[in-house]
């Protein structure tokens, strides 16, 4: 999915010394120091920037945070507010499943994994440039939900996405819905059918 042009940041400053200055030890020492500083402060920085940010396949948490800002994505998951109504249970304190209707009162940490964040960033980036065709919708559905998931154009300004239960991950499905990863044209409705 990523096709990033390779580049070379390596440079050898000592290679550019003319033969007349081969015995100039102070000049060689100065250029070697400059080479060492260049390696430490420029080349290593650019290589780290490429690895941890620019190449989404290898981006770390910091790089994905930068992509989150650039693409206006919010990866934070807000905890669910505590429930105060319709609580039932046993006794005067409603002692039943953490004072809730068969669910905990506090929200769980549903943060996305690094790999899923990378996928969301790639697909969100592509959604800005990809055509909004049924072919592209099918391509993204297969990437996110598995090879047996597909989309059909209903020919009435709506698309139906069929999701196979056996291969689709609920986390990936929710990420696709929450971050609007399908390249659906404006004004087109989406229906999801699990099979």
Sum up the structure in keywords:
195 residues, mainly alpha
How are the SSEs ordered, and which strands pair?
Layout: H1 25-54, H2 61-70, H3 114-127, H4 134-145, E1 150-153, E2 158-163, H5 170-178, E3 189-194
Parallel strand pairs: 2-3
Antiparallel strand pairs: 1-2
What value does the average pLDDT take? 80
What integer value in Å does the Rg equal? 26 Å
Tell me the overall shape. elongated
**Class by SSE composition:** mainly alpha
Ranges where pLDDT stays below 50 over 5 or more residues in a row are 99-109
Order of helices and strands: HHHHEEHE
Distance between the termini: 28 Å
What portion of residues is helical? 25-40%
- Record field, number of beta strands: 3
Strand order of the largest sheet: 1-2-3
Overview of the structural elements:
Helix 1 (25-54) crosses helix 2 (61-70) and helix 2 runs parallel beside helix 3. 38% of the residues lie in helices and 8% in strands. It starts with 24 loop residues before the first helix and ends with a strand. With 195 residues, it is mainly α. The protein has a three-stranded mixed β-sheet with strand order 1-2-3, covered by helices on one side. Helix 5 links the parallel strand 2 (158-163) and strand 3. It has helices at residues 25-54, 61-70, 114-127, 134-145, 170-178; strands spanning 150-153, 158-163, 189-194. The protein has a domain at 114-194. The protein is built from five helices and three strands; from the N terminus they run H-H-H-H-E-E-H-E.
